Amino acid sequence: MVIDTVYLARILKAFRESKIAHINISQIKESLGEKHLTEELLYHFQILVENRLVSNSLLETGSMGSLGVNCTIDNELVAIDVPLTRNFNQTR
């Protein structure tokens, strides 16, 4: 899959335009007009996680699981609404 920088920007816009300190996957999906965890959202969210641009409310990052995206026993991905925040000033 090709990285879509416009799509990444739309995800980050959900954080930037939020009136609250923490948002969740459902709110990101809603801001993108999506009802389900799509492959496109998963791929681009993973890029943000890999680059430590988002974290949970405990400031844990680098793992999809700690940010609410988990794999079931049937290898299906599910999203749990974990409070997320941005780490735009974070360095590795």
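the 2nd protein, sequnce then structure:
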Amino acid sequence: MRVSLAATALCLVLVQLGCATSSGNPPYPTEWASIKSMPTPEGCPDLQGTYSNQGTASFPPEAGEPPSLADIFMAMARSKTATGPATWRRSWPTIPSESAKVSIRQTPDSMTITFIDSADRGTPLSFRRYRFTLSEDRVDDLFSCRTIYDAPTLRFFNEPVSHTRASILAIGGGGTNINLLKSVDGSLVVNWRSDDATVSRFVLGSDYHVEDLWYRYSRLAAERPVKE
């Protein structure tokens, strides 16, 4: 994890200096509704609402059918990375793969995502907004808010996948971030962002690659009480 972060940081510096190559697929699709939605006072996207568990679109098209929201969060629940629950000796509840819808509730410092099945039984996941502290005993349930692509974005600390590598010639690594955004038409947008960085040991140069996958989930108008 430290090698990956150091390599990525150095690559970004070298890109700015013109000593590195950078590549990746196009950003957010222009044919989708804009993600430049009104942020909350804390700078987060306003995600409050209920959404379909099944996605309606993917970008780029070669990404295939979008994963369900349940599948995305189960990938986080199973993460073995330094920011995943296993590293912090935590476990997440089992998310029902057959969830029909997903409810999101926000406060300035927390968020609860509830996966609701066809019988209106809910399985909640609780997350905390990151606040600097020296006594943090886990990070798998943390999120922060920032601006990406000129849009308010919520980023989870938990990386589903990360990797490092080292050889005589180079060092490198990368990981995957899950970001949530809100489009102006009310849809939930998931950005599955993977990066990979390689730094040469003997020649001043590097390679930095970013892959952005975008998934869209429709907002549902009607809500019924959730059974515990």
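The longest strand covers residues 170-182. The first helix runs from residue 2 to 17.
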